[in-house]
């Protein structure tokens, strides 16, 4: 049975912390000082989850390096890496702090890049590159999107056609809405349908924080479906676990 992603990542991070004698080093995680404009700038489209206020961005600082994570349960934190590694990771709060800190530490160790959110028109540019990458590297596919990132959804629909794209989302206000010609399915009840239907599964890395990633990954593996995560949240976890990740404009 596959080990939970954050448990496996925690073991690997613990090994790195011990190797570099960093356990007692200080970490600061901040919420509130990072406004939506600081996090994403002023993109022309206004339907990104960050701008709609459903999730916020927290930012961890470790020495002179930073790491970010999306969460719907933001909390400040101040303490040591040892404290971070001792948390249970059973709530969105703790998972977000752990993930943001992992991103900051791996950035400090120069093991990962792209740990701060893209800004202004960069999300749109990234979404276009993701769709083109899939077309060029994999070909014409039925693309499943777990987590409605509207620019990615729109670009997938442009490249592959709305009939070849399906999308689930956890926001109840999105369920049944048509975006880019694609009806949004309920992520709580129809993610299995999405995985059954698709050839390729794009998954928001926010699932690492909201606790749904392991189930999605398990089903994708069981059905032999290629899984790619996107977004800054998953930068460090992807590096530690060897997950495929697309995030072209992160800083």
């Amino acid at each position: 049975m596959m080990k939970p992603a954050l448990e496996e990542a925690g073991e690997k991070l613990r090994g790195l912390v011990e190797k570099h004698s960093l356990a007692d080093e200080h970490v600061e995680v901040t919420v509130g000082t990072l406004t939506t404009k600081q996090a994403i700038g002023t993109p022309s489209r206004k339907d990104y989850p960050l701008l709609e206020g459903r999730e916020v961005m927290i930012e961890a600082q470790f020495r002179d390096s930073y790491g970010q994570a999306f969460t719907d349960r933001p909390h400040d934190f101040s303490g040591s890496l040892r404290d971070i590694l001792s948390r249970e990771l059973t709530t969105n709060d703790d998972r977000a702090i752990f993930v943001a800190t992992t991103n900051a530490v791996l950035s400090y160790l120069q093991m990962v890049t792209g740990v701060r959110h893209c800004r202004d028109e960069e999300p749109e540019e990234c979404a276009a590159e993701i769709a083109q990458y899939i077309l060029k590297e994999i070909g014409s596919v039925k693309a499943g999107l777990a987590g409605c990132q509207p620019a990615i959804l729109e670009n997938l629909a442009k490249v592959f056609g709305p009939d070849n794209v399906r999308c689930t989302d956890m926001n109840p206000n999105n369920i049944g809405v048509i975006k880019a010609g694609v009806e949004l399915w309920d992520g709580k009840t129809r993610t299995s349908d999405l995985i059954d239907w698709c050839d390729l599964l794009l998954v928001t890395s926010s699932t690492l924080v909201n606790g749904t990633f392991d189930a999605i990954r398990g089903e994708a593996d069981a059905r032999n479906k290629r899984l790619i995560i996107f977004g800054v949240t998953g930068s460090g976890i992807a590096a530690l676990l060897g997950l495929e990740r697309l995030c072209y404009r992160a800083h």
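The mean pLDDT is 90. The radius of gyration is 17 Å.
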